[in-house]
Amino acid sequence: MKVLALLFFTTSFLFASVDINNASLKELKTLKGVANVKASAIVDFRKGHCFKKVNELMLVKGIGAKTVSKNKDNLIAGPCK
């Protein structure tokens, strides 16, 4: 039973959308082309800004059109905290 629960959680996490306004550092690092440095840059950027659209992610230093394009289907810009 525990194995099934773990498998379900892992699978749902892999296919879930990443909310760029609220995702944790760990969640951001699941995106293609985003590792520690870029994930940290996103977290730092959103301390003073709120993403209204996914494309605004390109305002973060180090995040370009290619990164956004690769992940566009898995990104959402949810409500700001």
Explain the layout of strands and helices.
Layout: H1 2-15, E1 18-19, H2 25-28, H3 36-46, H4 65-71, E2 75-76
Parallel strand pairs: 1-2
Describe the structure concisely for a colleague:
The protein is built from four helices and two strands. The protein is mainly alpha-helical and 81 residues long.
Molecular structure report:
The protein is mainly alpha-helical. The protein has a single domain (18-76), classed as DNA polymerase, domain 1 (Orthogonal Bundle). Helix content is 44%, strand content 5%. The chain is built from four helices and two strands, in the order αβαααβ. The protein has helices spanning 2-15, 25-28, 36-46, 65-71; strands at residues 18-19, 75-76. It is globular. The model is unreliable at 4-13 (pLDDT under 50).
- State the CATH class: Mainly Alpha
DSSP E strands, number: 2
Return residue spans where pLDDT drops below 50 for at least 5 consecutive residues: 4-13
Largest sheet: 2 strands, parallel
- What fold name goes in the CATH topology slot? DNA polymerase, domain 1
Order of helices and strands: HEHHHE
Report mean pLDDT, rounded to a whole number.
87
Q: What overall form do the CA principal axes indicate?
A: globular
Estimated share of beta-strand residues: under 5%
